Amino acid sequence: MFRKNCTEFPDKDILLRDGLNLYFINAFRRRVKFDSRQDLFLMHGRPCQRVYLEDDGHWFIQEDGKLFIELDTSIPPWTVQPPDKYCIDTFVYEDEDGKTQTRLDALACFLDETPPNHFEVRSTCMLLSCAFILVTVAVYAWLPELRNMHGRVLMAYLLCIFIGFIFMASMQIMLTIDNITPDICVVLTIVIYFALESAFFWLNVMSFDIWWTFSGKGGMTSKKMSKRFCAYSLYAFGVPTILTIILTSLEFSGLPPHPLLPMVRYQGCFLFGRSKLLYLYGPMFILCLANIVFFIMTAVRIAQIKQQTEMLKSKESAMHDEHRKDKQRLLLYLKLFTVMGINWILEVISALYPDADYIWCFTDAYNVLIGVTIFIIFVCKRKIFRLIKKRYKQLKGEPMSRTQTTSIRTMCSRDDVRMSSVKNS
């Protein structure tokens, strides 16, 4: 048990030797038996850097020494602070008549308090990841053969991740140097929220597109590709826009404080706690479930196609070659979905357990691996290296062999004839 005081003392040896001659105020709801000399020892000073004053009287000390605080607007309507996360002291104030009064209040720590260097490490990890993401986008934008539907969707997804990480790193750098205002916090939160939600909606587009490819709903000509991409863009950017408008409207609605409201200006930069789980991770969870359903349906369709084309195993078969390439694309999407799914799980765990430093360290390290992993999956392949080499020769004006020209022409026309055989089957 702790006998706690919020005041800093210059000479703690005097306190330990002579103690404090203070009167005792019962802060327990039920009677607790203990020896004040054996069961209590003195702690002085604030337990952490960021504390808030619990002065409404809706608190008491539990039998195990933890501080129980009643919160009418929270779910559940209480919180419990461990013994090393609060202090109790007598505070002087003036009542309505101007008379000086004393009152016993508690100073409680913010449970989401992070280590001083946490923002620096996290922002550095995100910036390193952004570098690899930007290189991946540059490669796909530079090579004409990769600017098909798959490449366009991938670039849109990566750009959303890039914008979200850049603005989040900027926010954390500004927090580190203590150069940020509540208005800037809200603006950055809106941009980050829209970018991250859009990224997960583009991931959902990938899952749908690969299912559509194997379902035999229809072929993809070059003319239809632009219309299809516009429809995908309307979905992947439109729904996050609606969610962002709802978030912003609730933030500035002027409603009384409630745990289901964003309250970005009152809880620090970005979403926090249950509002973060509801507004950010809630839609992401639904999209992850939808992606799993699309992948399962695609796997079932692949098994059906394999049975239907059992007699067409020759590598010269165009149908077999198209199926093989689309299965490779499915494998890439599964890898990407796994990478981002693990990131989503780590972020949720970090939000649920903000005091677990080892989880934060693992999450920060994984933020670096996101960009590196995406770069390895989509760029570090022999096919990409060959295309880069061909593109470089084209820019230098070097002639290409007939085999290279035929290969490029075949790759460019792939989207014009894809899955027509599946539809016929």
Automatic annotation (TrEMBL):
Gene Ontology cellular component terms for the protein in this record: plasma membrane
Keyword annotations: Membrane, Transmembrane, Transmembrane helix
PROSITE patterns the record matches: G_PROTEIN_RECEP_F2_4
G-protein coupled receptors family 2 profile domain span: 118-382
UniProt GO MF annotations: G protein-coupled peptide receptor activity
Membrane topology annotation: Multi-pass membrane protein
Transmembrane segments: 126-143, 155-175, 187-208, 229-250, 280-303, 330-353, 365-384
Protein localization: Membrane
InterPro entries (UniProt xref): GPCR_2-like_7TM (IPR017981), Mth_GPCR (IPR051384)
Single Gene Ontology BP annotation: cell surface receptor signaling pathway
Protein's UniProt name: (apollo) hypothetical protein
Organism of this sequence: Parnassius apollo (Apollo butterfly)
